[in-house]
Amino acid sequence: MKIKFENVCYSYNQKLPPKIRVLSNINLEIVAGEFVGIVGPTGSGKTTLLQHFTGLLKPTSGTVYVNDKNIWRKDFQLQDLRRKIGVVFQFPESQLFEETVFDDVAFAPRCQKLPGKEINHRVTSALRLVGIDAEQMGNRSPYHLSEGEMRRIALAGVLAMAPEMLILDEPTAGLDPSGIKLIAGILKRLHAEGITIVLISHNIDLIFELTNRIIILDEGAIEFDGEKTSFFHSSKMLLKTKLDLPRIIKLSQFLCDQNIIQNREVYSKHELEKQLKVL
Ligand SMILES: Nc1ncnc2c1ncn2[C@@H]1O[C@H](COP(=O)(O)OP(=O)(O)OP(=O)(O)O)[C@@H](O)[C@H]1O
Ligand SMILES: [Mg+2]
Q1: 45 lines ligand 1 (CB under 6 A)
Q2: 37 lines ligand 1 (CB under 6 A)
Q3: Residue 174 sits in the same domain as residue 108
Q4: Sign of CA pseudo-dihedral 205, 209, 210, 212
Q5: Maximum CA extent, the chain
Q6: Count of domains in the chain?
Q7: Block mean pLDDT (10 aa), the chain, length 279
């Protein structure tokens, strides 16, 4: 699947002057297999941008294409698109509504009118993917779970649709380090299995660890779109966006300044370990 935004602008209040548009002239293209991070301060338009991917919001001007087809043309099947792009929203509890965990995860496959056996299989494997045992948790109410568990159930509900692309809005907000690690592990596995992922997060360590490409939004406009390494290399971009450096880069720079390691350009835990082993 290929998604393309062409000069997309959006205002919640259509009468607002162009200067206070929430999105202005967004041009981007995401192709199958990518793992893209979207970063930007509160209010920069990340969630608004996300809602344009599946046609939950219609651009005030500009066009969104999926596989070169304008998604707002009358003959375009938005329902099909929403089945192919799974979205995990910012507040997971808003996405849960059935009485049991099983029913909640089964919602999309049931809507697709899949046979009962296939529904069971989809639900148990989606729950397994997020580290939840269907036998143990299936009958519990999704409302009486911890925030981390709710987040995982919401993700399982989306995975049960077998989407080609997954978009997640702040999936780790409010989670403890082990909860964050768990989500990171799940996303890595899903990407390795071939799902295209767009991750919106304020957690710069997570974005740096998982994604290849980052898009930085500021006041509704794209400030940067490219390789994560070239972004964190550019002190001009760092200064301009006021983003913090990922901890792994900070630590490597410190160790290099102390002459403990030789190379400042370390981009993963694995690379850092390798340099430390040489000592
Ligand atoms: N339904 C709405 N009606 C009017 N204005 C809105 C609405 N939703 C968001 N906005 C405004 O649009 C701007 C962008 O909001 P958006 O939720 O896209 O930001 P965000 O980057 O996702 O922020 P955060 O990091 O806090 O989640 C903000 O100024 C916000 O106040
Ligand atoms: Mg948001």
Answers
A1: yes
A2: no
A3: yes
A4: positive
A5: 64
A6: 2
A7: 96 72 95 96 95 96 97 94 93 85 94 92 94 92 89 93 95 88 93 96 93 94 92 79 84 89 82 82
Residue 145, C-beta contacts closer than 8 angstroms, at least 6 positions apart: 101, 153
Is 48 near ligand 1, meaning CB less than 6 Å away? yes
Q: Which domain holds residue 255?
A: 245-279
User: Could you tell me whether strands 165-169 and 85-88 are parallel, antiparallel, or unpaired per DSSP bridges?
Assistant: parallel
Ligand 1 pocket, residue 42 CB under 6 Å: yes
How far apart, in whole angstroms, are the C-alpha atoms of residue 45 and residue 10? 10
The per-residue pLDDT for 273 is 87
| 11 and 87 inside one domain | yes
Are 25 and 121 contained in the same domain?
Answer: yes
- Choose which residue among 19, 47, 56, 87 to substitute to test ligand 1 binding: the one with the highest number of ligand atoms within 8 A of its C-beta: 47
Say if residue 88 is in the same domain as residue 9.
Answer: yes
Whether the pTM exceeds 0.70: the reply is yes
Q: Helix, strand, or coil here: 199?
A: strand
152 and 212 fall within a common domain:
yes
User: Cβ(241) to ligand 1 under 6 A?
Assistant: no
Q: What is the pLDDT of residue 268?
A: 83
Same domain, 192 and 249: no
**Residue with CA closest to ligand 1 atom 10:** 12
